[in-house]
Amino acid sequence: MKITRIIAYPVWIGIRNQLLVKVETDSGIHGWGESGLSGREQAVAGAVAHYAKFLTGRDPMLAGALWQEMYRSQYFEGGRVLTAAISAIDIALYDIKGKALGVPVHQLLGGKQRDRIPTFATTHAAPGPEMIEQAKLLMAHGWTCMRLSPHDHENKTTYEPRESIPVTAKWCVKAREELGDAVVLGIDYHHRLSVAEAASFCQKMPRGTLDFLEEPIRDETPAAYAALRRMTDIPFAIGEEFASKWQFLPYIEQDLHQFNRIDICNVGGFTEAMKVAGWSEAHYVDLMPHNPLGPICTAATVHFSAAVANFSWLEVRTTPTEAHLGFDNSAYFPTQIRLDGAEYPVPDSPGLGVEVDEDRVKAESFKFWEAPHLRRHDGSYTNW
Prior knowledge:
It contains 13 helices and 12 strands. The protein is of the alpha/beta class. The protein folds into 2 domains: 3-103, Enolase-like, N-terminal domain (Enolase-like, domain 1, 2-Layer Sandwich); 107-348, Enolase-like C-terminal domain (TIM Barrel, Alpha-Beta Barrel), CATH 3.20.20. Helix 3 (80-101) packs across helix 11 (269-282).
């Protein structure tokens, strides 16, 4: 079996662009993958087109060797654009192998260790009574782990961390009081704080208020996380933007975090994600995968989550509290893995278990989208 064509489809589906990648073979079997570098899909599509030039004619069953060739075949190796492209191709290669062998992808990863994949949900209301009501709604629908919403500015153009911190901390405390101790509570600050600001936020809440703090600061300097770790005992959940096992290295080896928010569509696909999973297991770091994209990303992450020992919860964005993100994508993905309550059942169909209506995808086009460019009151730019 040989690869005959690799096609990238950067298309607007529902509320966002998705970068879908199809790998075709001369046997008639094809595989689908997805890239996770949201907002820079065209750059990734260019990298996919480049890789297609030398992967055409190659054996799709050799995913590990092809991963190494894609990563090591240029002097300027790595980087988020390239590994996002590698991720999509690698996922598609596993889809092909599963279909060719007649087994689900998790069987290629060592077999499933669980039959169902627990998920965590997210409130979207600003900190306040509505946020707590949304959390109660999630509990009523079976969720026992959830992520609360930090205080933000309604106009989405200005952001002041010191204005957000006291409001968010106050309502996190109220949420814990009203929801009780049985529910797992966290919050995602989307790396918008400095070390001092993040420490101040943590110190405004009684111990035990939060079970995890996600992405409080940017990740470029591990020493900054080490400094923050000395100032708080709240477990950190980080890594959704990490683009290789090497980027995870200092965080795992220095015990800086407790949950890996690994994104299989950014880190390098199944080939790289399984290495990070084993490394994390050796250091008792649990996996809490990032899953903000479409059904292909969800399916790949479900298979990955089924096959690893050190799994906690998988992110899900199709819940009763995130109806504003709701979009029926069945026309594009007529077969996909769907929630059963607050869990995903692990599929046993060959490959990923996702079918794509390629004609429908071809009929869509890319739409330019850019994340908000946030400023502080003094006019300076800050993190989105």
